[in-house]
Amino acid sequence: MSSLSIGLSALRANQVAMDTAGQNLSNVSTPGFHRRVPLFESRGTAGPGKFPIGLGVGIADIHRLRSELLEEEITNQTSQGADTTAQLDTSRQIEAFFKPSSGSLDSLIESFYNQLQQVAAQPDDPTLRRVAIDSGVGLANTFNGLTGQLDSLRQGLDNQMSQTVSQINTYATQIAQLNGEIQRAEGRGFTDADARDQRDQLINQLAGLIDVRVIPDGSETTIISGGVPLVIGEDSAKLQYTTDVNNNGIIVSAGSTQPLKISSGQLAGLLQMRNQSLPDYRSRLDTLANQLMKNIDGVQSTGLGLSGPFPFLASTRPVKSITAPLAQAGLALPPQSGQVWVSVTDPSGNRTLTAVNIDPNGMSLQDLANAFSAVPHLSGTVNTQSGLMQITAAPGYTFDFAGRLSTAPTSTNFTTGSPPTAQASGTYTGTSNDLYTYAFSGGPGTVGVTPGLKLTVTNSVGQTIASLDVGQGYSPGTDLAVANGVSVKLSSGDVNNGDTFTTQVIAQPDTSGVLVSLGLNTFFTGSGAGGIAVQPALTKDPQLLAASRSGAAGDGTNLQRMAATHDALTMSNGTQTVSQFYASMVGDIGSQVQDLNQRQTADQSLQQSLDAQQQSVSGVDPNEELLTLLQYQRGYQLASKYISVVNDTMNQLLQIIR
Amino acid sequence: MDLRITPQTQLEFSLGNTRRQTDALGQTEIQMGTGLRINNPSDDPLGLVKVFAGHAQDMQFTTFQQNISESQTILNQGVANLNDAGSVLTKAREVAIEATNSTNDAGANEALATEVDGLLKGMLDIANGKINNEFQFSGNATKTQPYVVTATDSLGRPLAVAYNGASERANIAVSPQQNVDTYYPGKDIFQNIQRGPTIYVGNTRAAAGTGTDSATGQGALLVTHTSTTYAPGSGVTAGTSSVTGDTIIGPAGAHTLTVKDTSGTGASGTIALDGGAPVAFDNTQTNLQVTGPSGEIVYVNTTNITAGFNGTVAITANGALSTDGGASSTPINFSSNQVVTDSKTGAVTNVNSTNIRLAGKDQLNYTGTYDAFQILMALRDDLRNVNHLPEDQRLQVLSTRLAEIDRVHQGVLNTVGEQSADLSNLQSLSQRTQDLQLNEKERTSNIEDADVSQLVINYQTQQNLLRLALSAAAQISQPSLLDFLH
User: Rounded to an integer, what distance in angstroms lies between the CA atom of residue A325 and that of residue A319?
Assistant: First the structure.
């Protein structure tokens, strides 16, 4: 009597099929759910006689509709997309720091320079001086603030990555567990579709965090992440987030120090930002701040404030070792080979210029202090503890680095009994340091008396730069313009042909940059974008702002020089100004965000299309399910009818027997 | 095979579309809210770089515009002050012309002198004028009062005015390439040296040497007698008052003494100087005053006259020159050029001392060097005749004053001209800066600012698209098999 059992098998099979449709319908919105289809098969061969009619119908398997290739593509794409998104999110935060506004760094740099230009126009206006210095303070604070924001963003990334890694470890553990469950379940001979769905879902989530290579191995799955096996069978590895000696963030397997090469996923994006983009912007800010300080400080340190030369001056940028050569003494703005000209003024106002040679590779701070001590009436001392140097002038003496002309000639060679006194004056406007030699001819004679008496001025390379009549027609004691802003005057006196004197003229009082390196009378102190600050002495006393090199109250030429560094091509190997450097940095951030944004859009549309394809294979369409449900219902009804027919037939047969 | 479209797919498509439209709408709203097209660097990285540069330019133009107007204020004030100075000098010129009218009596001259005192005071006020609390004519030493009265007479009237300011001009940057001078040194404005020959007025017969002087204005050459020696033979020697009392100066033989021993024993006789009226002497006189034909005086000691001497004795009378009132002196060597230095100022005067024959005080007139104060003081002193010059000499000196006043006035006008030219340049520079700034603003605005009309249209379009997306979404699961199953 296989007829009844055939009917029964059809009832059962359709029941199962209806359940499957029900399961599909109820999971219409479940993420990771794959549509299932019951596979009907005709059962067995048994039958009466020689005809194998079969034993009805059965469900061979409930098939999970899943495209292996597509799913793998989706996993990869998820990983890529997460990488881009992580980078984009962080870049957007960086971008927000540099958003142009009235208080952003670009406008502060501009307004600082404009304030300087305004003080240059009214150099002895105390309010304008105060405003300019405050504007410098605001600039320094903004530099510090940006550095702080970038640093705390980096800390945020560190935290985020630690959490991500622990999430990865959790996923890995869960996948390993599922591997075990599936292995055990499927050992009993059927597909554990739900567990597989769960595992696939977990793998996709894992792929969002880290690169994932899935190697199916029967019921189990091996997962390779960052080049190492993360899950093998029921075992999972533990990952750790830590930093290496260079303060780069790295991911290691627990117990190892070898950093993993994470190629995609959120972690890859975060590492990229943490180890490359952030340090890059951070170091560009430092470069910017350092060059800005170099530009401003170089001018400030070689100028004169309203209070004139100093009786005492202390350095403000410390060295790490007072005995190490300056180039290796840990200075952020190390000096180069050159000279610094110090001008010492005696109590009666006579000035003498002396050069101090700077050899950064052979000279320590202590040596430099000794070199200053060798200058008459100066003494240099070094504080071992603080790494700072003090220069003190003898009582009544003062000194400065403005490179003003000496009041007496640098050297004289007169051969008469009553020679004239020569004095050079004015502000040298040339571009390089020079030694002017003045020689008399047309004599012997008396200045202002002898007709044809001449004074010929030559520079250090022997070019004649001026020829002056100092004989009859010259009023002794009146200034004669030589060249480049320098004048000379002679008192009455006798000279012979070939009598000479020389004067040193200074365009760059500090060719070595050592004043900036050590922070002697500089505008800023500290180093880098994080350390930049306005010299405390300057905030206390705006008079110290070096408006001039002459010391005159109405002279703003040094500030003009300072303001002109705005247009100096000092950045990127002499191709950009400070402002341009900043602008291109912000431009780069913008481009990065723009680029990542476009990548994300592309990723999303690819993802969407992959999802659509995946849905096309594995998605549940309620209409479809309803139709199959109808089909199964009909099948069920048919089976019922069949059973009833068989039953009726049986009844009639039994009645015959009765 | 066509894609199977499930409600999930439809939902995702529709969600994606709605999200995109909302995003675009949000962007447009931000742009409408801020009025800016670039709100984040990523909105247009290249544009932003240009915007930064544009803002920098704009700010710089504003600063230079401020500097220009600052310079204009200073220069306008300068020109106004200098025009006042010009009026003072014009007034002084009128006074000088009136003073040369010899019919003036002392009272009238005094009235004029008083007027000049007032002019002098006015001139000082102008030269020490301030703007923005800065001295206008002190060069770049704007906190230093340029002109200080260093000596006054008993009535407090200035006798000497010194320039304490700087010798360099202050300047202001008015464009990246251009600076304009603002504060000029007063010594360049109020002096305008065009040195001429130095005029000696007096009786010493000192004359200008060949060298070039450096003293300015009016001065005095003090020729003092230091010693007198007589050629041997006559027995005449210098009297006890000789050093201070002799007024003759000259090399040996320039002055002569004619001695006649009428007694034949040296006991008595006559002595005459330079052939003047003979004076009787006897051998008791140690300090006999002998006056020559031009009023020159020697004191002689006649106690040892050689018996029977009858003849001429060559006199050597040494002297010294001083231009600082005797504070320092230079021995006369009767040469064509002697350099005499004022120990207070270091200024030199070249004196031809060859023909100096008398001690005394010569008034020195360093023509072409008077500054505004020196000329006013000199004019005033001439009016009061403080140097007690004879009337003809006084008038002669007065007549030179006119040229000096004109020269000083010319100097002031030169500066006015220079500053006016600068002012007119500044005017056009200001205009040009404004134009450039406008251009820059416009260029930056084109990059940075949102195109409002475009925005409004975009906004409308995006809203419509969003509506479309939303109503499409609302229709997603409308037709369903369920509708047809009963």
Answer: 10
Q: Which of residues 447-466 of A touch B (CB under 8 A)?
A: 448-451
* Element holding A185 (H helix, E strand): helix A126-187
> What is residue B423's predicted lDDT score, i.e. its pLDDT?
94
Q: Angle CA(B229)–CA(B230)–CA(B231) in degrees, nearest 5?
A: 130
Cβ neighbours of B16 in A, within 8 Å: 604, 608
Of B40, B172, B176, the CB nearest to A121: B172
- Whether chain B has a CB inside 8 Å of the CB on A112: the answer is no
Interface test with A, best of B10, B140, B352, B482 (most A CBs within 10 A): B140
Chain A residue nearest residue B177, CA to CA: A564
Q: A99 — contact with chain B (CB < 8 Å)?
A: yes
pTM of the model: 0.86
Which residues in chain B have their CB less than 8 angstroms from residue A446's CB? 211, 337, 339
For residues A562-584, give the mean pLDDT: 92
Q: What are the angstrom distances between the C-alpha of A613 and each of A31, A236, B2, B50?
A: 15, 32, 10, 45
Instruction: Find the closest chain B residue to A630 by CA distance.
Output: B485
Count how many residues are written for chain A.
658
Question: In the prediction, which pLDDT does B346 show?
Answer: 84
The share of chain A scoring above pLDDT 90, in percent, equals: 69
Interface membership of A432 toward B (CB under 8 Å): no
Backbone phi and psi for residue A379, each to the nearest 5 degrees, phi listed first: -140, 135
| Residues of chain A above pLDDT 70, percent | 99
For B176, the closest chain A residue by CA position comes to A564
The reply to whether residue B6 touches residue A621, judged by beta carbons under 8 angstroms, is yes
A 286-325 near B (Cβ less than 8 A) = none
Which residue in the block uniquely carries the two structure tokens 């300056």? Answer: A326
d(CA A326, CA A434): 27
Among the partner-chain residues A552, A594, A615, the one whose CB lies closest to the CB of B8 is: A615
Nearest-angstrom CA–CA distance, B161 and B146 = 10
**What is the reported pLDDT for B479?**
67
What distance in Å separates residue A394's CA from the closest CA in chain B? 27
Query: What are the distances in angstroms from CA A345 to CA A342, A404, A422, B110?
Result: 10, 11, 18, 50
- Is the pLDDT at B1 greater than 60? The verdict is no
Q: What is the pLDDT of residue A542?
A: 92
Helices (H), A301-399: 365-373
Q: Say how many CA atoms lie within 13 Å of B124 toward its Cβ.
A: 22
CB contact under 8 A, A121 and B214: no
**Residue-wise pLDDT tens digits, A499-532:** 999 999 999 999 999 999 999 999 999 999 999 9
Q: Do B7 and A550 touch (CB under 8 A)?
A: no
Q: Which residue of B has its CA nearest to A451?
A: B211
B-interface mutation test, from A118, A284, A562, most B Cβ less than 10 A away = A118
Centre a 10 Å sphere on the Cβ of residue B30 and count the other Cβ atoms it contains: 14
Q: Does pLDDT of A312 surpass 70?
A: yes
Which SS3 state, helix, strand or coil, does residue A192 take? coil
The tens digit of pLDDT for each residue in B88-145 reads: 999 999 998 888 876 677 788 888 999 999 999 999 999 999 988 889 999 999 999 9
pLDDT value of residue A455: 92
